[in-house]
Amino acid sequence: MMFRSSAAICGALTALAVSAGVARSEASGVQSSAVVEAACEGAIVGAASTYNPFKPGKEEGGPKTASGERYDPERWTAAIKTSLRQKFGGVQFGARPKFALVEAVGKKVIVKINDVGPLRPGRIIDLNERTMRHFDPSMELGVIPDVTVRPLSGDDWTAGPVG
Predict the structure, then answer these.
(1) Is the distance from CB of 108 to CB of 101 less than 8 angstroms?
(2) Confidence class for position 118, pLDDT limits 50, 70, 90
(3) Structural domain count of the chain
(4) Considering only 19-33, 81-95, 126-140, 143-157, which range has the smallest mean pLDDT?
(5) Which of 3, 127, 141, 143 ranks highest by number of CB atoms within 10 Å?
(6) How is 39-98 classified by DSSP, letter by letter?
(7) Domain-embedded: residue 154
(8) Dist CA 118 CA 128 (whole Å)
(9) Is residue 136 situated within a structural domain?
């Protein structure tokens, strides 16, 4: 009986410490890798590309995202493959966008998943311009292979690089 009580108290204290770390890191605008990793679910691996519906000749949709927000090339956002929509909370008009941790080329960034699309084969995520520049400053690659995307639990994340 004493062991069960101690284990329950330990579990509760661990949960409290993680949630306090999340709150502290969100207040500063930068999440630590340990806090982000604790909030991650299953990973998806595939290729990432970039999109901007305002560029001439682009096949993507218009200025509104699936969540109803206007596309903004300067925010940390992305569109997930349509078949992954449910894994990211539905991503639908009027619903609060979800967040994901994107890892590639030794860098990590939290993005707001505010759009979906029928991406080209092998691609799992389309990054907006700011996010793609984080991974490919010259924007010359066009596609980044072997990107890992992890949905983040909760919806109070601050999008941007993870330190």
Answers:
(1) yes
(2) confident
(3) 1
(4) 19-33
(5) 127
(6) TB---EEEEEEE--TTSTT--S--SB-TTSPBP-TTSSEEEEEGGGGGGGTT--TTSPPE
(7) yes
(8) 15
(9) yes
